[in-house]
Write a structure and sequence with these properties.
It is elongated, with a radius of gyration of 26 Å. It has a four-stranded antiparallel sheet, with no helix packed on it. A three-stranded antiparallel sheet has the order 3-4-5, with no helix packed on it. It starts with 8 loop residues before the first helix and ends in a 13-residue tail after the last strand. A hairpin with a 3-residue loop joins strand 1 (52-56) and strand 2 (60-66). It has helices at 9-17, 22-35, 91-98, and strands at 52-56, 60-66, 75-80, 83-88, 121-125, 136-140, 143-149. It folds into two domains: 9-40, no CATH class; 52-101 and 117-149, Immunoglobulin-like (Sandwich). It has 162 residues and is α+β, with helices and mostly antiparallel strands.
Length: 162
């Protein structure tokens, strides 16, 4: 039995450089091209994890994430205690929800779609509690900047002993 490792680029190069007949090398190339069509190179349901930078001052944190290809309407940001969750809304779901029911019949039909809207998902926990009501999010040129103020401690409360 003869096994050909066609999944690794290193192995494919080794096969091409080896003293194999040309028909065998052509067969490896044919198997590779038929196994992975161009439209299935990336799973549509997979979410990218955007790179994250976090800086800190005495009063707040600033988080910067690269999220190219998105508009601010496609983003969902939530702050709960110390946890920040960033995700995207699917463009097709958002478009169908925003479209009036009367114009649904006049909307163009998609015959071929190779470009898909990117999906991002990221969550992180910061060392201090956050003031969710004062947090700000700004999307500019594919970069999301979050300004997350720290919750100011009110100090110790005095109790009266009864």
């Amino acid at each position: 039995m003869f096994v050909l490792p066609v999944s690794s680029a290193l192995h494919r190069r080794a096969l091409r450089g080896a003293a194999l007949p040309r028909t065998l090398a052509a067969w490896v190339d044919a198997c590779e091209s038929s196994a992975t069509p161009a439209s299935s190179n990336r799973r549509d349901d997979a979410a990218f994890v955007p790179p994250l930078d976090v800086t800190e001052t005495d009063t707040s944190y600033t988080a910067t994430l690269d999220m190219p290809g998105l508009s601010k309407e496609q983003l969902e940001v939530s702050v709960d205690g110390r946890r920040v969750v960033i995700s995207t809304v699917a463009a097709s779901t958002q478009a169908s929800a925003d479209a009036p029911k009367d114009t649904a019949a006049a909307a163009p039909r998609t015959l071929l779609r190779e470009r898909v809207a990117p999906r991002y998902a990221r969550s992180f926990v910061l060392p201090a509690e956050l003031e969710a009501g004062a947090a700000e999010a700004r999307m500019e040129n594919g970069v999301l900047t979050l300004t997350l103020p720290k919750r100011i401690a009110n100090g110790a409360a005095k109790l009266t002993v009864q």
